[in-house]
């Protein structure tokens, strides 16, 4: 099967610093691939290159075989590449429902309708409600997004991404900063999405235990370079990875917590 | 309730024969239209423009020049409103396209520069505008009666209000609010913020031009003061004091500012300090921003909302383990 997402020699430099260095990767459709790597390895930068927030210094990004390197983030989202953000990025002064509804509206391509009242679009509301339920936020529809707890904001973020109904989901640390009790709920959401078998999911994650049983494959970034890409077992057994990353992670973790 | 107020205002000139009040209210209506158009930019889309006066002035000059040069009839008046709006639409479209890509404060500076350009144009193009001296012109026969003009302006205010309410509550309007809240996120949802900002500035420009046309007719005189920063600042003050992000707010703000302006300058006869009423205005403005950052309407609305949601308030307190 052709890869749905592919990069060739993808490189970006910020001044003298090479954040992502000639990464060649292929993403098979309808799989879940995790990206791991220590802090500063270029994971989020790599995401930004895929989603179009940043333009690469060199190299190409292909979506279904079509080069999308020169496309804007807007165009890529419309094409089918949706992303969530590591730093919670919602509309702070709008309600949960309105946040999700805006995303649904974008998917339905209702962009320049100026005259009809927005509540006439009942189907948008219904769909937004359904998604809110899926991410376990029911009962909080009318809360203002800025008043949500951190975990709830992450869930909202995922609901907005799902609302776009894109083929590829780029999830940037969906459980970052969440309390341990909330993590399983998010994992369930991701598992549910994966179970539908319709989505290609690319996931950045720090919590190793979480991705091991969830991922079809794992790729490791280190200092901007692609260190390894393979099944969870291969990665665990890979010695360079162990030296470069896995040892470091657990050290980092003990420091962080 | 708004309907009742509108009807009460419509009956008002037939009950009261105070000419001052009729003129003052007409002025309030006109500035309400201007302030509402400004709020589309400031309150809904989150664009700070310091050049809103140029669209107001464009409407004012178009109407004044056409009524003077062609003939002072109703037809010319309506046509001139149309021409003014069209001009404002074209110019706001091009300016928007060129400048709205910029970050907010650069945009604000550029609008200031462009509106300054129009002010200089009006000063120097003396053959048409007679510069700073301005010129008087005849209003259409129909408007000789102040009451008729009052009713027409009120009707236009109501129509503009209804139109803008529709506009901000449409799916399009909701995206405008999203742009205000978080432009980058709006983009990643697949909306192109630039398109929304340009359309918002065209709508605001067109409505400001309409207000300008009415303003010129209300004075039967036009000079370069319609293009000055003062007009923009008035609109800004009205919007902020009344309440940004609401449509009623700018109307309330326009009423308050016009009324205080009227009364404070009236007091000047007895107390010379009120010659400088603008000082008091500054103080009121500072107090408003400190104590009512959401404006009058915004604050009231928040109070009401809090009361209605008090019952489930404990829910919204973040749980400890989430912190």
Automatic annotation (TrEMBL), chain A:
Supply the alphabetized keyword list.
ATP-binding, Nucleotide-binding, Transport
Domain of life per record:
Bacteria
Annotated Pfam families: ABC_tran (PF00005), BCA_ABC_TP_C (PF12399)
PROSITE patterns (UniProt xref): ABC_TRANSPORTER_1, ABC_TRANSPORTER_2
Which InterPro entries does the record match to this protein? AAA+_ATPase, ABC_AA/LPS_Transport, ABC_transporter-like_ATP-bd, ABC_transporter-like_CS, BCA_ABC_TP_C, P-loop_NTPase
Record has ATP-binding as a keyword? yes
An example molecular function term from Gene Ontology annotations: ATP binding
Q: ABC transporter domain: from which residue to which, for each copy?
A: 5-248
PANTHER family to which the protein is assigned, alphabetical:
ABC TRANSPORTER ATP-BINDING PROTEIN, CONSERVED COMPONENT OF ABC TRANSPORTER FOR NATURAL AMINO ACIDS-RELATED
Q: What is this protein called?
A: ABC transporter ATP-binding protein
